[in-house]
## 1
Amino acid sequence: MARAKNIMEATADPLDAMLARLQLSGIRDQLDTLLDEAARSNLSARETLILLCEREIARKDHRRIEMALKLAHFPAVKELAGFDFEAQPSIDPKQIRDLAASRWIANGENVLLLGPPGVGKTHLSIALGREAILAGYTVQFTTATTLVASLAKAHGERRLDEKLLALSKPKLLIVDELGYLHAAHLFFQLVSRRYETGAMLITSNRSVAEWGTVFADPVVATAILDRLLHHSHVLTIRGDSYRLRAKRKSGLIKTPTAGDGPPVGSASLRPVTGANNLQPRS
Ligand code: ADP
Ligand code: MG
């Protein structure tokens, strides 16, 4: 037994063991290839070390991004590259590219994406969330209904504080499809908790002017809006559902937005000039 152990130790590569202990799996897995590469390119010791570090960092970044994408719970894979800006002239591509740089997330600001069904709100929210992850931020995606249900459940189990703390962890919280909420006061607690510390991206097919009725409680609605709009970017998407474009083109459908999701078309989405009036006060 003791002899077998000695043989093992003698044959095991001490470098391999050290790389494992330092958790440098990128270097460890490709060591021979990397050293060959360095030798072929006549790299100095310093250059070789740089090459090894670069590979390790690339591996760690890749792993972090994979893990963060899993933890974000995006409902689909959507990227900015796949967004057809020409089909959606009410969106300024420059503004989206600015937001994709994720500075607003560093500053704990909010983005409100408003517009009728099918115009790409969820697509853009996932795509911006993905950019945030690439930039190194933690992101969590949820729908408003799921979010409020989980807050209500935690409240019932006297764990609300714990839940609010967990939801204040990700640097960006995406709340998709904000509509009628029966427990708006719980949502208010979350918004207060994250205020000026964590960014939120909220999508809704209701204009800001409608939120008073959407939340059933105008006082709570005002308090929520007050915090959300303080440092915010409000984007209103107009136009027809992207989903129905192809069908419309083939003549299957005549009226825009007909039969697409809840009965909230572009007509019921009042202009967001109201929201803009409420916009940044500082
Ligand atoms: P919303 O959330 O506003 O209801 P979605 O983001 O779910 O709309 O968009 C509906 C579908 O249409 C999705 O599959 C989305 O990827 C696609 N889509 C919407 N707008 C665009 C666009 N401008 N370019 C490419 N795909 C789009
Ligand atoms: Mg959506």
Note: The beta strands are 110-114, 139-143, 172-176, 199-204, 232-236.
## 2
Amino acid sequence: MSDRSDAPTSVIRLADYRPPAWAVEDVVLEFDLGIDHTEVTSRLTLVRQADEPIRLNGEGIELLELTLDGRPLGDGEYILANGVLEVAVDADRCTLGARVAVRPAENTAFEGLYLSGSRDRGFLLTQCEAEGFRHITYFPDRPDVLSKYTVTLRADRQRFPVLLAGGNPDGTGDLADGRHWARFVDPHPKPSYLFALVAGRLERISHDYTTADGRAVALHIWAEADVIDRCDYAMDSLIRSMQWDERTYGRNYDLDVFHVVATHDFNMGAMENKGLNIFNAKYLLADPDSSTDDEYRHVEAVVAHEYFHNWSGNRVTCRDWFQLSLKEGLTVFREQSFSADMNSVSLKRIEDVALLRRAQFPEDAGPLSHPVRPSQYSEINNFYTATVYEKGSELVRMLAGHLGRDGFRKGMDLYFDRHDGDAATIEDFLKSLGDANGTDLSAYLAWYGQAGTPRLTAEARYDATQSRYRLTLRQRTPASAGQTVKHALPIPVRLSLFDASGKALPLRLEGEATAGATERTIVLDGAERSIVFEDIASAPVPSLLRGFSAPVILEFDYAPEELGVLLRHDPDGFNRWEAGQQLAGLAYDDCRDGKVDGAAIGAWTRALAQLFGDPSVEDALLAELLTPPGEIELVERQPERDPDRIRASRQAMLRALASRIGVPALRARYEALRAATSAALDATSQAQRQLKRRVLDLLSLVDEAHARELARAQYDEAPGMTDRLAALATLATVDPDAATPAFAHFRHRYEGNALALDKWFAVQAQLPGETALGRIQSLERDDAFTLKNPNRVQSLLGSFARANPSGFHRADGAAYRWLADRLVAIDALNPQVAARVATAFNGWKRLEPVRRESAHAVVAELASRKDLSRDLTDILARVAL
Ligand code: ARG
Ligand code: ZN
């Protein structure tokens, strides 16, 4: 970050990778901590690996002193230029000492050492991934340099009573002048990006944990006093994560202490620093009064994610940042499996696929498209993307599916054992999984190097006289930025065939003696493949890509009734939902341009109305089924790409659904769910709340006055945040004026609760239509709004630009110009946050001409500026192409 773009931006290429010229065996760090001024003393034991000078990275830090084997180096004995400190050394082994000064309170970019909260009450903390350590001291700041760390912190005892760093505690004591010290030794060699420290006034909750292999571990969760009572759910999630990783992967925790710290000032979700995880408070704090059910699930997932990194990321790390998905894709996969085990397998799959389609598919369809393993970057922070994380997880899922449960476990055992203590590559991962199973998985490497979402087309021909069913599968990946030629990938297609009554048919492929299971996985590993099923008595309905067996867009020419069969009968919850989504897509096509007419909208509303009345359909699944693809996903189906029309068509289709179900049924269901209302967090209660929300939203489309009263009452009576926030959103959509007092009440009730206020901003930022921009501008003037806090920026600007298509994409372009202004202001404070918000422009080229023109003008203008950060410049340059 923060070097402005007048400095030449260099491109880093995977093909240029070279192993480090010097290894760092161990690192001794001493910190004299202060809010304005912190002094960092380092002593590195360096060991030569190649005939080159020592090169250390350092940015935005002041070098006070440099020594070689204890001898001070004069000006002529080193070169310091462009963020690199170079020292030529004859010996093969040496000790390099440095003393540097850093200024935490001035660090608004939240990278390196910075201050969270106010000067007089806040605390100091670090964020090093990806390249933050170079903002703390001079170091070969790359993930393939692994070292043992000994860290001593010194600070004023009153102001900084708690001193934490990663590793095991190794003594504390008093110093003169009211100061104290604490030392930590981490026995596990680690790269610099996993270093962390925290210092300040924090409270804690603790738990004694014993690992499966018998280690006693003290678990501590730390937070500021006003929120420490909201950490219990995180502790509970942590304990369950530790047990799950022991059970599922045989992986135990490996230090005597494990610290987790919550901060309100954080650029990302959380960070897996060895022994000292640091969390955005949004993913750690939870209580019924201020957190929604979704947020409880997010806390559980992110706590697990960071904990799982201890093996997939820390014990085995990445050779270079191109391999980021090696740890992130794998850890997301592990986290998703954990959440599925804790909750519901099919609901989790629905949630994950919906996220992939909402976040990753659009990313991969625009100018920011990149492979899961990119081949070049100019700013690595811009590659913590849905592609690297979510698509990366899908790739691991395909591998796991290919190997089966036991085979995958064997492969993971070998991967962890073989590469423990290594900085590994994607190739290493595939090799371990393959070797453990006596198979070669290298064909899957192509998935890591190729951007874009493959289109999988299926074509069916039924031959009644021969009772044969032929399915032809073809693949094609559209060209993407910098990749015009695309190759065929191995695509596992899990499938079943159903007869018209919804019975799954036993499958016998041409050439096989007997029929086997009712589900098979066919791998399409070339451009095209045909398969023939025998003994098929009547034209079947295929259920393809079951469980979403590959991250592709499936194109099959389903008749609406066929999807209706799957929607009613598919025993798999995920595929049932998927059939509903496909059918909803067709139904949407029937609702364009103000008409609501056609076979699909009829079939969709009929099928859902029937399921609505079917007591065997569980509440949670029903709520999902009643939710058609969102406005962002539907963009793909609307050739005109006009967000207003997309919204209007989607609303029309929902209205058709609501009238089909009927006001009496909706009212009755709402009342039944209302009577069951409680604040309980069990799955049943959560499902009831979710369904209640869907029912109220549907009701609001056909019975507005009554829905308004129900929403008002629900807001007043809500026992927890889920019901309260849902009521607020519905009320505001139905009747913004009627919602005004409720918003005022909420604002007042949660004064001082940052996470609740974020939701207050976000709900309003997402209210659709022309009036949205004006609303955003008045919200910016609220006392609680600040561009300095990443969560606040996300909740207002991020929600508006990314989750409010009809509001953001105003035809007159006013919102684009407004956002451009804000991006410049945010960039001066925090480049990572500015870059992330700027990705909202990713889809501009696919807008209708009027909007496209005004978006283009704004993007081009911004991209031509020379005073922006490398982070923002990189995004704009790629988006503007
Ligand atoms: N490794 C963190 C995770 O668990 C994300 C850190 C990203 N930080 C950044 N500055 N890009 O996903
Ligand atoms: Zn991660």
Note: The two ends are 22 Å apart (CA to CA).
